Amino acid sequence: MSRTYRLCRALRAGGGGVPVPASPFLRAPTPRGFSTSARRPLMELTGFSEEQLTVRDAVSAVCARFPSTYWQECDQNERDPKEFHAALAKDGWLGIALPEELGGAGLGISEATMMMQTITQSGAGMAGAQAIHANVYATQPLARFGTRSQLEETIPKIITGQWRTCFGVTEPNTGLETLKLRTLATKHPARDTYSISGQKIWITCAQIAAKMILLARTTPLEEVRKPTQGLSLFCIDLDREQPGLDMRKIKKMGARAVDANEVFFDKYEVPANTLIGQENDGFRIILHGMNAERCLLAGEALGLGYAALERAAQYANDRVVFGRPIGQNQAIAHPLADAYMRLEAAKLATYHAARLYDSAASASNTGEESSNTAKSNSGGSSSSSIPLHSVGVACNSAKYLAAEAAFTACERAVLSHGGMGYAMEYDVERYLRECLVPRIAPVSREMVLNYVSEKVLQLPRSY
Ligand SMILES: Cc1cc2nc3c(=O)[nH]c(=O)nc-3n(C[C@H](O)[C@H](O)[C@H](O)COP(=O)(O)OP(=O)(O)OC[C@H]3O[C@@H](n4cnc5c(N)ncnc54)[C@H](O)[C@@H]3O)c2cc1C
Fold it and tell me: Transmembrane residues, as ranges (predicted)?
C-alpha cells in the first residue's frame, strides 16, 4: 500500500465528516466576549513537506473534535482522555511510524513529530501528547528487534488502540544514571520465565496500559565489565491480577489527565518470550528509540509554545486598558515577538534533527551502515553520509531548544493575560504547568548541556 494512499485514507478518515477548519489552532479563546475573528496561524509553514502538511491537516481535524473544555475537564478530574486516544487510533495515527507490513503508515519521525506538535498545538497540550506518544516511540525498538510472533501479537493491537503501552526505564534510586538501574529480571529456564523484582518511577499511563516496554538488568551491575552490559529489553503484560505487581499514582503538577506512577515488581513472573532481541543487549536496542523520542518531545514542546503564543497575541489585541489594546505597549509586544522568533528557530532545529534521524535510519535499513558503529548516549542510527554524532547532537539540541522556547512562550503568555493568565478558562496556566515536562524528560536540560559540552566542545566529561 503506497504512502500517499495511506495518507489520503488517513486524511479522509481524519476528516470523519468534520471539515478541516481554516485555522485549526484558533478555535478556543472566546470567553468574556472577546473577538472571534479568525487570525492567521503564527507558525510559518514554508519548508514543510507535503506529507508533513497533510499529516498536520488531518490530525488537526481529529483534534478539532476535542475543544479546550474537554482538556480542562480531563485535567481537573484527572480523567484519562480515552476518547481522544480512541479517535486517533480509529484513524490509524498510532501506527504513523510503524512499518506498513504491520499495519502502520510507514512514515518517518519527521511526520510523527509533526503529528505530536499538532496534538499539543490544538490545545490538547502535554496531556494529549502523553496519552499517545509511548505508543509511537516505545514501539520503535520492538518493531525493529522483535520476533515475527511478538510483532504480530502486539503491534496491530497497539495501532488499533486495543492495547496501550507504557515505557519503564526510570528508577527512583538511579535517576538519570540509567546504566545503574537495578530492576532485575532473573531467568528460570525450567519454567521458561523471567522473574522481575525492582521499582520504576514516573511511568506514564501504567494504570491503563496493557503492555510495558521494560528495561531491566539480566546481569547484576557488579558482574558486568561495563555498565552498558547486562541490560535487557522486554515487552511484558501488566497483569494487575497476577501476584508481584503493584502501582501507585503520583500526584503531579500538570498533564493530570494522564497517570504517572511508581511501579513495584516483586518476583513478578513473565514468559521468557517477552524478551526483545538478545539477552543483555537491551541498552543497544533501546538506544534505537532515544533520538526519535527527543524529536517527538521537541515537537510537543513547540506545539505548546505556539498555542500559548496564539492565545497571548489574541488577548493582547483584544484586551483594552488605558484606552488601547495592551499589545500596543512594547513591554507586552516585544517579549511576544521575541518568543515567536525563539519558537521559529527551535522549529528549524527540530525538523532538521528529525530529517537527519530519518535519513540516517533509512540508510541503515538499506544496509548502508557507517563504519562508525560506536553508540553514544543518544544514538541508534547511523549512515555513511550522516555521522551518528551529528544525529545525536541535532536531536538533543532540538529537544533542549524547543523546551526552552516553549517555556518562554508559555510564561509570557500567562503574564500577558494579567490576572486572567491565572484563570483555568484561559488555558495558558495549564500550558505553563505542562511545558515543564519537556524540560525535565526524557532527559534534563542539564544532561543535554553535559552531552554537548563533552561531545561537541570536547570538554572533560563532568559526570
Ligand atoms: C511527567 C513525567 C513523565 C515521565 N514519564 C516517564 C515514563 O513514562 N517512563 C520513564 O521511564 N520515565 C518517565 N519520566 C522520568 C523522566 O525521564 C526523569 O524524571 C528524568 O529523566 C529525570 O530523572 P530524575 O527525575 O531521576 O532526575 P535526577 O537524576 O534525580 O536529577 C535531578 C536533577 O539533577 C540534575 N543532575 C543530575 N546529575 C547531574 C549532572 N551530572 N550534571 C548536572 N546536573 C545533573 C538533573 O539535570 C536534574 O535537574 C517522566 C518524568 C516526568 C516528570
Answer: none
Ligand 1 centroid vs 439 CA: distance in angstroms?
10
CA distance 159 to 100: 11
Domains in the chain, please, with CATH? Answer: 43-159 (1.10.540.10), 165-276 (2.40.110.10), 282-455 (1.20.140.10)
Q: Is 446 in the pocket of ligand 1 (CB under 6 A)?
A: yes
Name residues whose C-beta falls within 8 Å of residue 16's C-beta, 6 or more positions apart in sequence.
61, 62, 65, 91
0.85 exceeded by pTM: yes
- For 200-243, the pLDDT digits (tens) are 999 999 999 999 999 999 999 999 999 999 999 999 999 999 99
Q: Which residues pair with 233 in a beta bridge?
A: 215, 276
**Segments of the chain with pLDDT less than 70:** 1-39, 365-384
Separation of alpha carbons 387 and 18, rounded Å: 44
Sign, CA dihedral 116-118-120-124, equals negative
Query: 376 with 392: CB under 8 angstroms?
Result: yes
Q: How far apart are CA 277 and CA 253, in angstroms?
A: 37
pLDDT value for 279? 97
Q: How far apart are CA 166 and CA 215, in angstroms?
A: 12
Using a 6 Å cutoff on CB, does residue 260 contact ligand 1? yes
Task: Give Dmax (Cα) for the chain.
Answer: 81
Which pLDDT belongs to residue 111? 98
Nearest CA to ligand 1 atom 44: 446
- Which residue owns the Cα nearest ligand 1 atom 30? 175
The predicted structure's pLDDT at residue 384: 55
Cβ atoms within 10 Å of 8's Cβ, excluding its own: 13
Q: How far is the C-alpha of 457 from the C-alpha of 403, rounded, in Å? A: 22
- pLDDT of res. 116: 98
